[in-house]
Amino acid sequence: MKKRKLLAMALSCIMAFSVVACGNSGNSQDAAPADAEPAAETTAPAEEPAAEDAATETPAAESTDITLWTYPIGGWGDSAVVDGLIANFNAAHPEINVTVEYLDYTNGDDQVNTAIEGNQAPDVILEGPERLVANWGARGLMVDLGDLWTDDAKAAIYDSVESACQSNDGVFYEYPLCMTAHTMAINRDVFEAADALQYLDEENRTWTTDNFVKAVQAVYDSGQTNVGAVYCSGQGGDQGTRALVNNLYSGTFTNPEHTEYTANSEENIKALELLKGMDGINFDASIAGGDEINLFCNGTLAMAFCWNVSQEKNNLETISFDVLPMAFPTDSGDPELCGGIWGFGIFNNGDDAKIAAAKTFIDFMTNDQAQVTESVKASNYWPVKDLGNIYEEDELMTEYATFIPYMGDYYQVVGGWAEARTAWWNMLQQIGTGADVSTAVEEFVTTANAAAAQ
Fold this sequence. Notes:
Elements: H1 3-16, H2 51-57, E1 64-70, H3 79-92, E2 96-102, H4 108-117, E3 124-127, H5 129-137, H6 151-156, H7 159-164, E4 175-181, E5 183-187, H8 188-193, H9 209-221, E6 228-231, H10 238-248, H11 266-277, E7 281-284, H12 289-297, E8 303-307, H13 309-314, E9 323-326, E10 339-346, H14 352-367, H15 372-379, E11 382-383, H16 395-400, H17 417-432, H18 437-452
Helix pairs in contact: 10-11, 14-15, 17-18
């Protein structure tokens, strides 16, 4: 990420949690006019208009049906929350009917791909650039949303977000709603009991690679043998394993232009060899990110690499220990976290009326002054533009705002992204079963770059 983009996000973060937001008054509906006074009697009553004339004078508004499919982006995966958001939309646009289907990260991609193959793709979908831009957009399946990216929108939305929402040739396939920085987390109670807190900076939530190794060893020696897991049964939560590997020795996943995969660097090979040899860190091909979260929350694992504020909010009732979110360890002292950007895309199903209705829906959810804050808060993340302090007095959101300035390059829009994600967890499985690290990483890069070149 360019320094100016980091600065813009950091300044936004500071503003969001130090300035009290101006309240937005709700839009009041104009009162319906009172019935007109009856006309004075005349000697002959006026003729009633013919039915066909009346219909001509007061045509019924045409109704358009659209479908919204949403991945579980915070409350956008909760039907009760989404029903409320759509009720707001229908109060302003009763002529558009929205049917919702809820996806998860286990089967959601399969459901979408099946729908695409059957010419039944949804009209609107809520997800991130790696799917909307680098996958479906790159395959020519999505509508160009350039008309939503007005000059005002470009001026308001952070530069790093804008660049992630468009293809390499400048076509916008996503209109963004919210963002976050993915972190890792530790069981602070376990680390304290193992005297491992000395190895991390609690105030800034950072640690060095050397101190990470010492902390894991201390926890392992204390009797907690399952300290952390390099999960690799599938692609779910792979942003955590990528960030872990890239940060340990300041490696990169792609080149700055997002045209080539560079995970076969000496730095990344060194990081994978380190993880493979550490006591307490296990390569586990039986679990993906969601499983790792469950194992962390129930105390089986002492740390989680697949984490962000939404995970803590979703598991408050099941966690019985003090969670300490942390940036990934790095040798440079300057962590670069994987960011999450979520927004809307439109599948091109060949129906202009549905496309227009879908754009109306997106514009309302992301730009309506009275609605956008509610739309963002439903995600449990942060806005992609300055909306002021939308999380006033929310201690947890304030705590996780610490990580927004640590966001690194949003490289998930490189070509061949879907194939690269599969190749990544296959590579981790190979390393976990004893394959030579350099050989496995070279195979990954060869596969990923071949996909990127298509």
